[in-house]
Design brief:
This protein is of the alpha/beta class. It is built from 13 helices and twelve strands. Helix 4 crosses helix 7. The model has no long low-confidence stretch (mean pLDDT 95).
Amino acid sequence: MNKKPPPATSPNPSPLTRLVHAGKQPAYAGGRPVNPPVVRASTVLFDSTAHQHEMRVRRGEERLFTYGARGNPTNYALEDLVSELEGAYRTRLFPTGLAAIAMTLLSYLKPGDHILMSDSVYEPARKLVDSFLTPYNIRCTFFAADGSGVEEKIETGTRMIYAECPGSLVYEMCDLPRLAAIAHAKGLLLVADNTWGSGCQYRPLALGADVSVMAATKYLSGHSDVMMGTVATTQAAWQALNERSDAFGMTVSPDDAYLVLRGARSMAARLALHESHALKVAAWLQTRSEVATVFCPALPGDPGHALWQRDCTGTNGLLSFELQGSFDQAGAERLIDGLRLFGLGASWGGYESLVTLANMRNARSVADWSGRGQVIRLHIGLEDPADLLGDLQQGFAALRA
């Protein structure tokens, strides 16, 4: 197809006209950049009315650059990277991880449906049950984090099993291939939150899931400076997500997509350090008399260790620990406030170490945490582990003060 010629102008156009039309497509000779360029665009121009019509007809089934709300070449490059990581047919990008979860629920569920949700899901996902699902007559039943008893909870109207593995805060493992077999035998969709696994260490689609959701805010970005969510699907599950996302105008900034692309290039190297440092901290915590339990599926004593060995290729910087029952919330807060290298923050996945107090009584409804000790979550960053252990030593001293 011939390209549309540049707009006709007078032999000597005014500076105003030159400002509007000059420099739109600079020509240069040479090679190409290593990284995809940042393409900022709302309006997309076409060569002719026939070209515009053809693109609009095809864009429902194909990924085409037709309007900024439907994505752009920078976004597409990140989608392709995530699809490669996840082993997916296609991927969509969303402004936050929570937006990715919400759009997944919105794409596959309708009023009157029933969903089974793991007790271990990200707490804001639990809140979506009250704020979104229930008002729209979509019923939800929570099942045990390890997947036990899920078959007995399936109803006539059940449409989806939604799991997070390893679970949020204390990293329970479930047998995802078993959940997939149960779901598919009943014609249900299996959705997995894969933020912990980040596509490098855990691949739900390869284990039988239909949809994998990630907060790219975390390890894919790796630098605590951008928010994003991704949803990757099998071919069979793709079109419902794609159509609903287009209907709601869901996309992300090309600048944010570029930041995540840049961060993802070093993710494997960063994760190796996160894992090495976290295991050293976990081993040290297991020696502390103040600690009742260290939660990390990579530890041999963890209840999910065998599943972790089977299904995962590593761990990351996340671990949590439960204080002995003699220490109350005030004591846990003294420990946290006694730390200097650990930042007090709710996110994780960046290069820095973080700490936060986990309220397990709010985060679980099937498992009973009423008699358990205070739980503190750590994200172990890229600092020298010896320095982090020294900082934790100060925190424990404050706990006992």
